[in-house]
Amino acid sequence: MFPANRPRRLRRDAFSRAMVREHRLSPADFILPVFVHDIPGRAPIPSMPGVERLSIDELLKVGEQALELGVPALDIFPVIHPAAKSLDAAEAFNPEGLAQRAVRALKARLPELGVMTDVALDPYTVHGQDGIIDEHGYVQNDITTEILVKQSLSHAEAGVDIVSPSDMMDGRVGAIRNALEAAGHIHTRIMAYSAKYASAFYGPFRDALGSAGNLGKSDKFNYQMDPANGDEALREVALDIAEGADMVMVKPGLPYLDVLWRVKQEFRMPTFAYQVSGEYAMIKAAAQNGWLDHDKVMMESLIAFKRAGADGVLTYFALDAARLLRQHG
Ligand code: PBG
């Protein structure tokens, strides 16, 4: 008796593996998140080895590299000076704010590069929460949404291509869409952080923004999703689509591939995943110890997103992975 099927036949040689490969990565699959600060030069982020905070001049250099490598878009995260943080987060919609200036500089110098901004108040609040809190520390939904709308409009006026609400307030996608339309910004795309979980994997990001200290021991469970929930993600995505989102996102990435898969299967929308700071830090730390092969694990993690149905991945590895794809195809 012989085995009726020998799946290993197709695995034997590189040519036949290439013939039956189901998914491929390309630089166009990546969006690079970038941290921008208001001082000259670059500054390392210890918990995110290889990632630096950038001045606007340095950001333009990174933007050029992204364009050159075929990475279609950057996502801007401003590091706000403590003196500009407040309870009402008014700096978020300052037309001369750091995010707004970064957008204008990128669109002036590199008009073909897609520019995306995060819409949320955590860089701007003294307590590091994503919204306006009441006397109990509870983030108030509708008041916060009004400020998110102003923030989005100020980004659109600066010329941003995509606004990306990451705050998880109810109804904010509809409010932002309506205000953008009313102001004539009919082309501004919305990538909604639709299923965003209250995750401890955001730790290094909060170090990068300097908001970890502000947040202290408090958490974001009253607006970000419970990691125990899957069906709820589908309800959140349905709401954001109905409210006018062009693209939806699941965040974090690898620990939530089941959610990504379900969202893609259910809605067939342009669907993105965010490989967050903590996921990046884990791979970097293990690689620095010699415990994992950096490049192989990076590429394996990225192809996993494609297999699970992602149309693209926000990843701090974007430029490294694009370079590797250019070298090896
Ligand atoms: C802001 C925001 C966060 C991240 C993206 N946008 C942090 C948070 O919600 O606390 C995390 C990204 C990362 O960890 O890489 N709302």
Automatic annotation (TrEMBL):
Residues the record lists as binding Mg(2+): E236
Functional pathway: Porphyrin-containing compound metabolism; protoporphyrin-IX biosynthesis; coproporphyrinogen-III from 5-aminolevulinate: step 1/4
Swiss-Prot/TrEMBL keywords: Heme biosynthesis, Lyase, Magnesium, Metal-binding, Porphyrin biosynthesis
EC number in record: 4.2.1.24
Cellular component, GO, one term: cytosol
Pfam families: ALAD
Residue positions of the active site: K196 (schiff-base intermediate with substrate), K251 (schiff-base intermediate with substrate)
Known catalytic reactions: 2 5-aminolevulinate = porphobilinogen + 2 H2O + H(+)
GO biological process: protoporphyrinogen IX biosynthetic process
GO MF, any single term: zinc ion binding
Gene3D superfamilies: Aldolase class I (3.20.20.70)
Family annotation (PROSITE patterns): D_ALA_DEHYDRATASE
Highest taxon of source: Bacteria
Subunit text: Homooctamer.
Similarity-based family: Belongs to the ALAD family.
Stated name of the protein: Delta-aminolevulinic acid dehydratase
Originating organism: Ideonella dechloratans
Gene field: hemB
